[in-house]
Amino acid sequence: MSATRQTVVGVGLALAIIAAWTAVHAYALFFHRLEPSSLIVAPLLMAAACWLNVGLFIIAHDAMHGSLAPLRPAVNRAVGRVALALYAGFWFDHLRVKHFEHHRRPGTADDPDFSEHRRLLPWYAGFIRHYFGWPQFVVLAIATAALLLAGAPFANILLFWAAPAILSSLQLFYFGTYLPHRPDERDFADEHRARSNAYGWLGSLLSCYHFGYHHEHHLAPHVPWWRLPAERRLRAPAR
């Protein structure tokens, strides 16, 4: 695939995810009323907000690798910064450095994403402490105050903004870090110390935008998220 076509598809998908994220949050925060007749819609809105949050991070992740818009670093930086700012007030350039440390030394003491804890919650707690600090807390506090001033009910903020942000971080961690890099009785295939899940296309998309095909990502970090299923099929005979 040419760099131009990959850019058109990648940026187009990124803009679609950002637009969907904006629409879902605008409706859920300002227009959805938590009444008995509409309560059945609330879990669907929460699930949609959570999944689109994951999408924002995956967009930024591709931008870190330059696979969102090949040979266009300014486009990668711009889209990546917007996506991470919307996600949780993260700074793209800082996370990019940390992410490349992960790729250089995956599954070792020098990997910022790795933990000696094999249990899910202790590892996740350390992961959050490592990446979520006072700058993110201040940004989110300001954003919460701005939403309240704009007229969003506090209950809507908790259900459709705060809760999906927390749940999406757990979703990203579980499918994108914990399952792929958790040591167990099986040996890793190579120095990338990463495994891939066996989900089908739809399950892979819904779980983590194909990021669960994690060994393929480490083998070919230049491949964007939407091409990982094809990369997996391409490499299947070698496994």
Indicate the topology.
Blueprint: H1 3-30, H2 41-65, H3 73-88, H4 92-104, H5 120-131, H6 134-149, H7 154-181, H8 201-208, H9 214-219, H10 228-235
Helix pairs in contact: 1-2, 1-7, 2-3, 2-4, 2-7, 5-7
Task: Tell me what the structure shows.
The chain has ten helices and no strands. α2 packs antiparallel against α3 (73-88) and α2 crosses α4. It has one domain (3-238). It is globular. It has helices spanning 3-30, 41-65, 73-88, 92-104, 120-131, 134-149, 154-181, 201-208, 214-219, 228-235. Helix content is 67%, strand content 0%. It has 239 residues and is mostly helical.
Element string (H = helix, E = strand): HHHHHHHHHH
Main pleated-sheet profile = none
- Helix % is 55-70%
Work out the radius of gyration.
18 Å
Mean pLDDT: 92
Beta-strand content: under 5%
Specify the number of helices.
10
Q: What's the overall geometry? A: globular
- Structurally, the number of domains stands at 1
Q: Which regions contain 5 or more consecutive residues with pLDDT less than 50?
A: none
Key attributes of the depicted protein:
single chain, 239 residues, mainly alpha, 0% strand, globular
Short overview:
The protein is mostly helical.
